[in-house]
C-alpha cells in the first residue's frame, strides 16, 4: 500500500455554519518534551488516517485535503518566501471522503496550526477507538462529521495553477467570464463560483 497523500490547500476553508473559537488557547501538544513541529503534526495526522484502513485493504479515506492559512510550494513544503511567520488565524479544516462519503474535521481551539492539526489527529484516534472496542463502526463514529463536498479550490475553478501570478489570474477570469456570465448564457451558480474563486485568488495574492 503506497503512502497516503494529504493535499495542502490555502487559504483555510472553514466549514460553513461552523462557529469559531474567539480566543484560541496556548499550544498543548509536545513531541520529545518540545513543542510539536508542523511536520510532526502532519505525520501524526497521516498515521491516524492510514490506520483507518486495515492492512491489505484499499484506502477507506481518499481525496484528503488539509486547508489552513499556511502556503505550500508545489513540492508540499512550507513556502518560506511568502511568509515565515505563523498566520493570525491558526485554524485548520480537513476534508476527506470516508467510504465515498464526504466528511470534514475542523479545529481552531489552539493558537498554532500544528497544534490544531494534532488535535484533529487525536480526535480521529479517539473515534477509531470506538470501532476497536466494538462500540461503533467508523461510519457511525464519524456520523457527526458528514459534510458537503469541499468546493474546488480557486485555481481549479479558474483553470490555472496554484502559484499563478495576478496577471494570469486576471486573464483566466476574463476568459472564463465570457461564457460564464448569465448575460452570456451562463449558469448563475457557475458564475457565483467563478466570482468567488476570483475574489479568493486576489486575496491569496495580496
Lay out the secondary structure.
Blueprint: E1 7-9, E2 30-31, E3 34-35, H1 38-51, E4 61-68, E5 92-98, E6 101-107, H2 113-132, H3 138-141, H4 154-158, H5 166-180, H6 188-204
Parallel strand pairs: 1-4
Antiparallel strand pairs: 2-3, 4-5, 5-6
Helix pairs in contact: 1-2, 5-6
Shape: globular
β-strand amount: 5-15%
Percent of residues in helices: 25-40%
Alpha-carbon Rg, integer:
19 Å
Name the structural class: alpha+beta
Mean pLDDT: 84
Low-confidence runs: none
Biggest beta-sheet profile: 4 strands, mixed
Compute the number of strand runs: 6
- In what order do the strands lie side by side in the largest sheet? 1-4-5-6
The H/E string reads EEEHEEEHHHHH
End-to-end separation: 40 Å
Number of helices: 6
Would you write up a description of this structure?
This protein is globular. The mean pLDDT is 84. The protein folds into two domains: 7-145, no CATH class; 154-204, Helix Hairpins (Orthogonal Bundle), CATH 1.10.287. It has a four-stranded mixed sheet with strand order 1-4-5-6. A two-stranded antiparallel sheet has the order 2-3. α1 (38-51) packs parallel to α2 and α5 runs antiparallel to α6. A hairpin with a 2-residue loop joins β5 (92-98) and β6. The termini are far apart. The protein has 206 residues and is of the alpha+beta class. The protein is 36% helix and 14% strand. The chain contains six helices and six strands, in the order βββαβββααααα.
